[in-house]
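Lecture 7 notes: from sequence to structure.
We start with the chain below.
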Amino acid sequence: MRVLFALLLTTQSALAGPIFSFTLGGGITVGDQVYNGFNQAAARWSSVLSDNVTVRLTIGYKSLGSGILGSTTGAFYDVSDSAVKAALAADAKSADDATAISHLQSAGSNSFVINHTNNCANCTTPYLSSGSNFDNTHVAVTGAQARALGLVPANFAASDGEIDFSSNFSFDFDPSNGISSGAFDFVGVATHEIGHLLGFVSTVDDYDFCGHTLNCVSSRSGTALSENEDDPTVLDYFRFSTDSGFGTRMDQSSDNRSKYFSIDGGTTLGPLFSNGTYFGDGRQASHWKDNLGIGIMDPTAAPGELLALTRNDIRALDVIGWDLATPEPGTTGLLGVGLMTVVVRLRRTRRNVL
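Predicted structure tokens for the same chain:
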């Protein structure tokens, strides 16, 4: 990962939550409005999470491609399914954690429905993936999430990702008095991007992209991903559907069927997820469903729209490995529904298998 210059800065809220250590990339100086905006976003997460870890991010502010509001690159670890489930169980503190863990599939392997893989010649129709393929026996964990789960040391020196904002857009850096017409909520979008690096991400986006391009750079086959080349994320443990032809199942497929968040094995239908840029609803699967006001992890933002965390966002972070500052979080703000505008892009880098 390229770092323009390595000035490390740390911010932490008054509560004992995660510390965010920033490496400054281009276009940011200490004390400017972009730097302060990232600090406010980090403080939001520190105020609702209680994990005593240091999250290391590179942040930048520069001209990006046409139509790109921001870009996030996350570091991932490929971890055995058994190790992830053991870590989730050891880290469990809330009632939701207990429910989620008790409804996970047996440690060691997962079965789920999937499509657009090299195994099925980039098929559209979902099929059941089970057995000992890499995607059945391993799970993708973000760098920050690995810290929270104790899979790497809390103060591990490696970077957890990079967030760049486009200097081509107008931003409002002070959400305390609303967002100016024609400007984007910088603190809200930065909170959203940090949320991805904390683990709100789905591997469905890999299959969706590679199935579309047939030339995915992360695929050893040069075509659609195979089941031995990628693995679900921890959030994907809680991504379900009921209409794939295989009953209620964990769902890794990219299509326009409904996929929903559930912590009890799919029995209770929670908030909907987006389901794919190319084969789904036109939005990245690493988000809530668009235009339903579900949470800050919705896929789009509009000029003049004030963005805030909701209980849906916090609950999802809780069950994927983070500890809450309060046992039962209330709504910390409602995300207003705005016009469909610019989608923030998510890219990945991966690290060695643990």
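Points to note: Confidence is low (pLDDT under 50) at residues 1-15, 327-354. Helices lie at 33-48, 81-91, 95-102, 134-137, 143-148, 186-197, 204-213, 311-319.
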